[in-house]
Amino acid sequence: MPEVDGATAEVVRSYLVAAAEEMRAALVRTAFNPVIYEVHDFGISIYDADLRLVAESTGLSRFLGANDYSIRKGVEYVGRDTLRPGDVVLLNYPYWNAAHAYDATLFAPVFVDDALVAFLCVRAHWMDLGAKDPGYVLDSTDVHQEGLLFPGTRVFAEGEPVREIHELIRFNSRMPDAVLGDLHAQVACLRTGERRVAELFATYGQETVGAVVDAVIAAAEQSAREAVGALPQGSWTAEDWLDDDGITDDPILMRVTVTIDGGTFTVDFEGSSPAVPGPVNLPLGATIATCRVAFKAITTPTEQTNAGHFAPLVVRAEPGTLFHAVYPAATFTQWTGTVALELIYKALAQGMGGRLPASSGGDVPGFMMVGVHPDTGSLFAVSNNEPVGWGGTPGHDGIGPANHPCQTQARITPVEVLEAKTGMFFERMEIRTDSGGAGRFRGGPGLRRDIRFVTPGEFLSVIKKTKSPPWASDGGAAPEANRILLFPGTDRERAVSTKRTAVAAGDRVTVLTAGGGGHGDPALRHPDAVREDVADGYVSADAARTTYGVEP
C-alpha cells in the first residue's frame, strides 16, 4: 500500500462520510412510509471489500452494529463470487438480520473495473410483510407468524428488478404500494452511494483509497483502546426486569456483567432469562448493536464511527437465551434492547458513577393505530415512539422530554402526520410536572399525551417497562414508571403495557412517559434551581416544599 499524507486521508475519509449522508438524503426524500421519512427509523453504512465498516450516516443508533452483523451473514449466504454489478440483495431473516422481520436490510456490491471494492447497506422499517396481524406483532410465538422471510434474496439482478420477488412481496403485504415504494427508496439510496463511491475510486485509485481505509480504521482502534485503558478497571453486575413477553404477565429477568480488564471491554448476559415464548427475544446481532451504542458513548463519542472503534468490545450471550434468539424463537417486539441499554449503564455506574447519568425513562413508549382511512378506504398502520426524560448527571439536570438514548438520531412522528394519516386526534400533549426523579440534579421530565379516536380501529401500545421504575444514582430519587391508560375516566379504565385494543370513535387513551432518574441527594439541590423548576412547570410547588424543602 502507498503511504498517504494526512490531507489526502482526511479528504477521502470525509468523502465517504458525505457519501453516506447523501444516501440518507436520497432515502428520506423518496420513502413512502412516515417511520422512514419522519422518524428516521433506518441505518445506512458503507463497507470496504472486506466488510469492514468505513462510514455511516445518522439514523437509528441501534442499527449500527445490526448492519455490520447482517451484511456479513447476507454475503456469506449469497456468496461473494455470485455478486454482480447492479445486484441488490434483501435480508430480513431475524437471526441473521439482527432485527425483526419488518426491518428490511438491502445491500449492494460496488464494482470498479470489474473489481469488487466496497459494499453498501441500508436498513429501514417496512410497515407490512404479511405477518399474522397488521401493524406490530405483539404476541407471536414463533418467527413464522411475523411475516415473509428473506434469507438473502436478489430483488435487483445486474440492475434489473427481479419481477417474481417484487410480486411475491406485493401479494404478501396488506400495504403493497407503501412497501414496494420503500423498497425502491432504499434502492435509490444504494444507487446514490454506488455513484459516489465509484467516483471516489476513479479520483484516487484503489490503492490510495485502500491505504486510507486501513489508516483510518487503525487510528480508530488505537483511540478506542486508549479510551478503554483510561476507564476504571473491574467487573460489575446489574439486573432489571421486562414487564412480560406478550403471552403471559410474568416479568422477565435481564442480567448483565460488564468487565473492563486488560484493554478489553466485555459485556456478558449470563444469568438472563432463557428464551421466552413471546416476541421479546433478541437476536445476537441486535444484542451486539445495543452493546455498541453503550460502548461508543463512553469511549469515542465524538469520532465518526468505523470498524476500528469496536475492536476492544466483546459481547457474550448463550444461544437459546433472551439475548441470543435462535430459530424459531419469536423476535418481533424488540424493546428488550432498549431496556438492556439502560441495564449496561446501570452496571457501569457502579464503577464510574462520577461520569454516568442515572437512567432515562427506561424504555421507548411506543404506540400505533391500525385501521381503514375514511377518506381513502385503504388500510393504515402508523406508529410513534414517545420521548422520555433523561437521567440527571453528576454535573447537570437531565434533558427531556427527548428520544431514548438508544435512538437519539430518530424523531417522533409529527402530530400533523398522525392526525392526517390515522383516526387519532390529539387533545393534549404536554410536559408532565413532577415526572423527573428528584436529585441534586433532577431527571428530565416525561410527556403526557391524550388521544381521542375519531374513527374505529385498533390501538397498539408497545412498551416493556411499566411495572418497575427507572433507576436513580448517588442518592437521587427514582421517577414513576411509564404508564398507558386505556379509556381513562370510564369504568373500562385500565393500565396496560404491550397490548392490541379495539377502539371506537370517541374512545380515549392517555400516554404517560417516565422522566429520568435523579442524581445526588435532593437536599443538595440549590434552592434557586428548585424555584426555576417550579416556574417552568417541571416541579410542582408541593414537591418543592416536601421533596426539596424549598418554599417556591
Protein described:
There is one protein chain. The protein has 552 residues and is of the alpha+beta class. Helix content is 30%, strand content 22%. It contains 12 helices and 20 strands. The chain has helices at 6-30, 34-37, 63-78, 94-97, 163-171, 176-204, 206-230, 284-299, 336-352, 415-421, 527-536, 541-546, and strands spanning 42-48, 53-56, 88-91, 103-112, 115-125, 153-157, 160-161, 234-242, 252-261, 264-268, 313-316, 366-372, 379-385, 424-431, 447-453, 457-462, 483-486, 494-496, 499-503, 508-512. Strands 2-1-5-4-3-6-7 form a 7-stranded antiparallel β-sheet, with helices on both faces. The protein has a 5-stranded antiparallel β-sheet with strand order 14-15-20-17-18. Helix 1 (6-30) packs across helix 7 (206-230), helix 5 (163-171) runs antiparallel to helix 6 and helix 8 runs parallel beside helix 9 (336-352). The N and C termini lie far apart (68 Å). The mean pLDDT is 96. Residues 5-522 form the Hydantoinase B/oxoprolinase domain. This is Hydantoinase B/oxoprolinase family protein.
The portion of residues forming beta strands comes to 15-25%
Order of adjacent strands in the largest pleated sheet: 2-1-5-4-3-6-7
Averaging pLDDT over every residue, what do you get?
96
- Poorly predicted regions: none
Rounded radius of gyration (Å): 24 Å
Keywords:
552 residues, alpha+beta, seven-stranded antiparallel beta sheet, globular, Hydantoinase_B, Oxoprolinase-like
